[in-house]
Amino acid sequence: MSERDPDAELVAGVGRQEPSAVRTLVARKLPRLLALATRMLGDRMEAEDVAQEAFMRIWKQAPRWREGEARFDTWLHRVVLNLCYDRLRAHREQPADELPDHADPAATPDAQLEAQSREARVRAALAALPARQREALVLNYYQDLSNIEAAALMGITVDALESLLSRARRNLRAQLAGDDLAGTRTSR
Amino acid sequence: MTPQRFRAIVDAYGADARHWPEAERAAASAWAAQHRSEADALLAQAAQLDAWLASDAAATDLAPDAALIERVVASAPANRQPRQPRQARRLSLAWPVGGSGRVGWWWSGAAFAGVGLIGGLAGAFAVSFFLVTGNPSPGPESSYLTTGFGGTAADWSDE
């Protein structure tokens, strides 16, 4: 890696337990981590928990951090994604009898469509994507990682990343277009 | 740049050239400039989805609230403070399912203190018993050695 890691000095300061470095790192990273976890989990409160856990990992690793092995930001994204996948797996493994017995009348498709704002519809469409497609899209589009960085982070080739991105966008388009059609039907 | 490759780039990365692969950005932009109508048709479709995605950016990329920032800052070794009420509230929500590293850490601290206290009392009892009878006391029952908090330290130390 020829370029210097832009976070290297800050992480060194955190490793030395400098309060100003801690505060600067939180200001720099927390919004990005929170956005990443919110999109992966679809739940702001859970995302806050993940962000706090990620920072506990940072405090632990910072004194041992060595520049040159991986960019700090890339490592941090991986930590957050792993924490998110742990939670997504836990949700999947929850026994079915913990689910509510009766459907919430407010959550029926028609009522939902009327109530959902444009943002909520996008969020629902994102949440409905397969996790790897969502991860690829979130990293490339929202986290502004390059295709090479995102592919490396996901442990796949750039070609495989492009395939995930194309499928993610196709699925989103189909779902949002479907919502539009359904919205037109219900408003008639 | 071929028409197929331009289409593949737009399909994967959208209409905004900032998201395109850096190595191909200039060539793709040049191709779009030379083939305006063909490029515009592809870009228009992708831009529609980009606009949808951007609407979520405005809603989700909100600044973290001040309380969260302070909790995170306070969790750094240089700033460790007693746990905040929010943690206690989340603890009650998490129990008995558990699973959160933060909650596990809180419990492992309580478990550690409790086991230490019990161990001290057991030691004092064993010494006094030995002095009275002249024989070592029997070892504690195995169930005495286990607590309800046994797995929590492992949860916390898990990387």
Automatic annotation (TrEMBL), chain A:
<dbReference type="GO" id="GO:0016987">
    <property type="term" value="F:sigma factor activity"/>
</dbReference>
<dbReference type="InterPro" id="IPR039425">
    <property type="entry name" value="RNA_pol_sigma-70-like"/>
</dbReference>
<feature type="domain" description="RNA polymerase sigma factor 70 region 4 type 2">
    <location>
        <begin position="121"/>
        <end position="172"/>
    </location>
</feature>
<dbReference type="InterPro" id="IPR013249">
    <property type="entry name" value="RNA_pol_sigma70_r4_t2"/>
</dbReference>
<keyword id="KW-0731">Sigma factor</keyword>
<dbReference type="InterPro" id="IPR007627">
    <property type="entry name" value="RNA_pol_sigma70_r2"/>
</dbReference>
<comment type="similarity">
    <text>Belongs to the sigma-70 factor family. ECF subfamily.</text>
</comment>
<dbReference type="InterPro" id="IPR036388">
    <property type="entry name" value="WH-like_DNA-bd_sf"/>
</dbReference>
<dbReference type="Pfam" id="PF04542">
    <property type="entry name" value="Sigma70_r2"/>
</dbReference>
<dbReference type="GO" id="GO:0003677">
    <property type="term" value="F:DNA binding"/>
</dbReference>
<keyword id="KW-0805">Transcription regulation</keyword>
<feature type="domain" description="RNA polymerase sigma-70 region 2">
    <location>
        <begin position="25"/>
        <end position="92"/>
    </location>
</feature>
<dbReference type="InterPro" id="IPR013325">
    <property type="entry name" value="RNA_pol_sigma_r2"/>
</dbReference>
<dbReference type="InterPro" id="IPR014284">
    <property type="entry name" value="RNA_pol_sigma-70_dom"/>
</dbReference>
<dbReference type="Pfam" id="PF08281">
    <property type="entry name" value="Sigma70_r4_2"/>
</dbReference>
<dbReference type="InterPro" id="IPR013324">
    <property type="entry name" value="RNA_pol_sigma_r3/r4-like"/>
</dbReference>
<dbReference type="GO" id="GO:0006352">
    <property type="term" value="P:DNA-templated transcription initiation"/>
</dbReference>
<protein>
    <recommendedName>
        <fullName>RNA polymerase sigma factor</fullName>
    </recommendedName>
</protein>
<keyword id="KW-0804">Transcription</keyword>
<keyword id="KW-0238">DNA-binding</keyword>
<dbReference type="InterPro" id="IPR000838">
    <property type="entry name" value="RNA_pol_sigma70_ECF_CS"/>
</dbReference>
